[in-house]
Amino acid sequence: MLKHWLVDTAYQVSTSKKYAKIKTFFYNLLENSDFKYKKYFDLLMIAFIFASVIILIREVKSHVNDYLLFFNNYVISIVFLIEYILRLWVNSSVTNIIIQNSEHDAMLGDEFKLFNTLKEIIAVKFRYILSLKAIIDLLAIIPFFHELRLLRIFILFRVFKLFRYAKSIQTFTSVIAAKKFEFLTLLVFASIIIFVSSILIYVMEGNIQESPIDTFFEAVYWSIVTISTVGYGDITPVTESGRVVAMFVIVAGIAVFSFTTSLIVTAFTEKLDEIKDLKLIDDIAKVKEFYLICGYESVSKEVAKKLAINNKVVILEENLLKVQQARKAGFFALNYDPGSIESYKKLRINIGTQVKAIICLSHSDVENVYTALTVRSFNKDVFILSILKNKINRNKLNFAGVNELFYEKELVGIIAKEFVGQPVAFEVIHALRSSYNGVDMQEIVINDRVVSNFVSVGELNNKKYRIVLLGIYKKSKKRFLFNPLDSTLLETGDYLLVIGNVQFLKMFTNNLHKKGSK
Amino acid sequence: MIKNSALIFGYNEYTLEIEKSISSYYDDIHIFKLNEEIKQDELSSYHISSFDLSDNWDDLKSCMDMNNCVAFCVLEDMAENIFLTISLRDTFKDLVIVALAEDKESADKLMLAGASRVLPTTQTTANIIVEILEKPIVTEVLHHILYEQSSLKISQIKVGKSNFFDGKYPADIDWSRDHGIIVISIVHEDMSSEFIYSAKEKHHNIRCGDIFVVAGYEEDINNFEKLIGGKCD
């Protein structure tokens, strides 16, 4: 009966959209650093931690307001308790374990083993409870029982909770953790030195009247102070043999100190690129819209430079040297293979909403086909543009899902034709395309706001801004109307093709959007 | 600009594309290969000769009217292309040389070597790619007007009858309503070009020999051409 009820409830809960939504929200809030509200939650928790510590310090010598004490001992502690419970909840899914086990047992034709399932649930939850972070979280709640004065010191565990919320501390610990074995060796070495020297100094000076070392604790204290190269001087050996021990500890101390420094420096140097990449990925994840360029070669350099004037550009390149060049040029560049799905997973971006277009500019058609296929394997809609190096590969790139192909050799032929046919017109169009002399050709999209201000072409008043209206691209008819009549109606989604001075174009565009500008 | 013959130096994919695009403009197209492999089937209708970078072009001088030729230097090795350009310029002072450049640096060198016009492939490719991404409608319309069979054209018209303007400044005339065309730019006799929208152009007197760059339907352009002068050659 109980077994049935448990399995039914597990299925009910796991299929409930509301439950999934709530759990995902709390998971994102507590664990997902890309979730937009997480930083506010983290800041609130950091504020609580500092408030606790400040109250603890103030309490040492002064009277603290009762409301503040109540806030510290109950409100903050309850908030931390709720957080602890939520973390325990989102850490693993009990319903999934029940469902998996019941299905497994049903498949084997056995009866659902409730005891085994409960054992598994407890094991999973305990694995979390016994993790270092969870222990710190638990100890941070203890000041809740503030009546026991001794337990107040547990407030300091709240400071350790900062590890959860401050990313730089997490980075530091991950760097140190990478050298765990070396640090452990160093710790063992230092502990042996401290232990041996403490015994030696205690044996040498413990019974000497003039010596300040009376107890073994004092010997250990002296040993640690000396090996750390701090050397307060409150306890010093007085016998010759004691001083020999001191010399030995001092030399060992220098070795320990330099070894520690070099370990930290090496750990940071080794992890520096990784840390930089992680920071870059974080920055990229925050960018609203950008162009993703795959490959950093001659054409990409120019394209990136031009696109970067009005947009954000991210470059993926396999060759480290080229990545460094791109970074030197001021671009977001990552040493990732654009032809690997793993690279896009690591980027933690939403290709559908964040990427304006993917531009495959490798000098090899093979690589461009591979990149396009990789992207298409997980996103069908993003716009992909690729250059074509050899025209026999045109179909392959089209087949790979490229939306726009660009064959530069064909372009050269077309330009040559225009140049020999109408050289003056060619020069003018060329100058216009490269915004020569501040004159540019632009497309202005007509939105609802513009339509509410201007009904027809005649009302646009473009001549006032010395702007030439070349025509209107009618979105509804997918047709370009050259030199439209004044009576032509403007519709939402149309594009105005205009030529004029960049400054005047800006003023004209602003005027189009200004209410009552007509 | 239109000459009778085109000489293409270099035999590669650029040659094929250039030949395809310009064949309607020239009576003769001569292709010269340096040491590239010949795929005879692709350009079987043309006679492909060989040349050497140490050539003094005596054969060329004897069989071609070089004043009526345009040379395209499309060697893929930039050092060789620059050498070829300098060699042609040294022998033929008035020859129109159009040269292919890989980047800005080689474009500058080719201009120094005496090329009349340089086509920098990297820059041009990048410009068009950015245009496709940033101004898709402009790209589509321009491509349609410039490169496809369309009644809408961009044309250059030389002013033959300046009295048509009768003291009027270009900015005073409503070209689009009066003549159905749009004047994009006016290029003066000294080849200094001014876009119609510049403040300077507002007070410029049209003289005989100025060139109008206009956009419009073929018929309107022809009518306008009859009105103000003759089409440039």
What report would you give on this structure?
- The complex is a heterodimer of chains A (518) and B (233).
- Chain A is α/β, with parallel strands linked by helices and 518 residues long.
- Chain A has 4 domains: 2-165, no CATH class; 180-271, Helix Hairpins, CATH 1.10.287; 288-410, Rossmann fold (3-Layer(aba) Sandwich); 422-513, Regulator of K+ conductance, C-terminal domain (Alpha-Beta Plaits, 2-Layer Sandwich), CATH 3.30.70.1450.
- Chain A is built from 23 helices and 10 strands.
- Chain A has helices at 2-15, 17-31, 38-61, 66-91, 94-107, 114-129, 132-141, 156-160, 162-165, 167-178, 180-205, 216-227, 240-286, 298-307, 320-328, 341-347, 351-354, 365-378, 394-399, 408-421, 423-433, 448-453, 502-513, and strands at residues 290-294, 312-316, 332-334, 355-360, 384-388, 404-407, 439-445, 468-474, 479-482, 495-501.
- In chain A, the strands form 2 sheets. Chain A has a 6-stranded parallel beta sheet with strand order 3-2-1-4-5-6, sandwiched between helices. A 4-stranded antiparallel beta sheet of chain A has the order 7-10-8-9.
- In chain A, helix 1 (2-15) packs across helix 5 and helix 2 (17-31) crosses helix 3 (38-61).
- The N and C termini of chain A lie far apart (77 Å).
- The relative contact order of chain A is 0.04.
- Chain B is of the alpha/beta class.
- Chain B folds into 2 domains: 5-120, NAD(P)-binding Rossmann-like Domain (Rossmann fold, 3-Layer(aba) Sandwich); 152-231, 2-Layer Sandwich (Alpha-Beta Plaits), CATH 3.30.70.1450.
- Chain B is built from 8 helices and 11 strands.
- Chain B has helices at 13-22, 58-63, 78-91, 104-112, 121-134, 136-147, 175-179, 218-228; strands at residues 5-9, 28-33, 48-50, 69-73, 96-101, 117-120, 152-159, 182-187, 193-195, 211-217, 229-231.
- In chain B, helix 1 (13-22) links the parallel strand 1 and strand 2.
- Chains A and B meet through helix 14, strand 4, helix 20, helix 21 and strand 7 of A and helix 1, helix 5, helix 6, strand 7 and strand 8 of B.
